[in-house]
Write a structure and sequence with these properties.
Elements (H helix, E strand, L loop, with lengths): L8 H15 L8 E2 L1 H8 L3 H13 L3 E4 L3 E4 L4 H25 L2 H20 L2 H19 L2 H18 L8 H19 L3 H20 L14
Antiparallel strand pairs: 1-3, 2-3
Helix pairs in contact: 1-3, 2-3, 4-6, 4-7, 4-8, 4-9, 5-6, 5-8, 6-7, 6-8, 8-9
Amino acid sequence: MRKLRRSTLTSDAYDSVRAMLLEDARFQPGQKLSVEMISRELGVSRSPVWSAITKLDAEGLVDVTPRQGVYLVAFDEERLHALFETREALEGMATRLAAARMTEAELNELAETIKHQKTLVSERYEREFAASALRFHEQVLRGARNSLIERHLTGIYARTSAMCRGRASERTAKVLNENFKDHREITNALRRRDEVAAEKLARAHVHRLKMAVLKPLGTGKIERVSGR
């Protein structure tokens, strides 16, 4: 972990702690975090780390319990239901807007992402597909040209990822292929500029993701569920 520059200490601490929680596999949902350990790793005092935690608490990525400590947000079915309900509505609208607003260059980039996903599915590269799926949704969001929707959905993606890390899943070849087909159909609707179909497909995709994430755990396991 790189040492932080004093000139941008607060923002650097936030970026570093957020990346640590979302990208570092050592922290599991509901796990207690050591502010002292994080401060040591970043080479700073606890003050900027606490500032970062305060912001992350407001974003729903950590839970701060008085006199007990700081915890990475825990897996919670009720919270996830609410997150996916909100995501379905916002992502449906974002995809409708993107059908009208994406440039031809952006649509071509999306088509390249779909082409790459086809290869990942055929090779069963689960982790790489999860990263590509997030990139796909971010591309659509940018094409919607609505910063408010983009900000809310980016936060939902992060909270869902943090809650579901390490959760077992029946992430079979069939499931990966279904996700890929959803993305391909959404892309086709966007290229046709079919706003109604794009929204309908996006909402159905998010609803199916919710069902997959919230279903009872099975025996097949992977390292994490992306929720995308």
